[in-house]
Amino acid sequence: MTSSSLLWIDGALVATAEARLSPLDHGVTVGDGVFETMKVVADAGGSSRAFALTRHLRRLRRSADGLALAVDRSDDELRVAVQQVLDANAADAGRVRITVTGGIGPLGSDQPTGPATIIVAASASRPWPAVTDVAVAPWSRNERSAVAGLKTTSYAENVVALRHAHVRGASEALLANTAGQLCEGTGSNVFVAIDGRLVTPPLTSGCLAGITRELLLEVIDCDESDLPIGRLAEADEVFLTSSTRDVHPVATIDGVAVASCPGPRTLAAAEAFAAIERRTLDP
What we know:
The chain is of the alpha+beta class. 24% of the residues lie in helices and 29% in strands.
C-alpha cells in the first residue's frame, strides 16, 4: 500500500497516510482480532471483485464469535465497503483484507465493552512461482487451543515459523500439531498424495478451515484424515492451498525433492479449482 491508497475504517474511506488507529485498540495491545484475506479477480466487465466473498464473510463471523467480537456491520455493509475499497484502488488491488479488532480497551486481557474496529484495505499481490518449496517448522500447532481454527490476528507464531522457512529458502513452513500429525502451513492448507489416495488434515487437527480447501473438497476426491508429519517424506505429491496461492505444487520439503511436481492429482485439483472460478466469482 502507498500513502495515497484508500482504505475503509468504521464507515469512511480515508487515505492510508491519514488513517488513525488508537494505541489502546485491543488489536494493537493484545492481538484481539480476526481477519479475512481475499484475492481480487476481474469480472466479465473488467471490474475488480473479491473472490468467494460470501464464504469469507461467513468465516469472519465464525472467528468473531469465537473471540466474542461484535461485528456491528451487516454483510451487505461489508460487501459495499469491500467494493468501495476495490474501486478506489483498482489499479493496485491484488488482495483485499477485512480486519475486525476488539476496539479501544484496557491494556490487559479484559475485553473492551465498546464497538469493534473494522478496517478494509487492499494491496498489490505478487504472483507466486509455478512451484514452491516448504520447510517443516520445529514448533507445533496446538489443536486444543482456545482459538484453534479461528483466523485471528495473533500471528506471532506464524511470523516466527515463516521466518524459519524463509531462512531455508522456502516460501512456507508446515507445522505438525501436538500429536505429531500434519496440520497446516502458516497461511495455507496442505494436501498430500500418498498410498494411492489424496489426503488433507481434518479440522480436528487444529488447521484453519481454508476457503480454497473447502471449495476443493466439494469437487475432488480427497480424504480428510490424520497423517503423521514424518510421512511427508513418502509423499508422491504435495500441494498447498490458500486464497492467494489457489493450488500451489510443492517441489521440495526441507530441500528434498517431492516425487512428482506437479503430479496428476495436483493438476486435477488445479483444474477443478479453476473451473469453479470460471463458473462464478462467489461460489
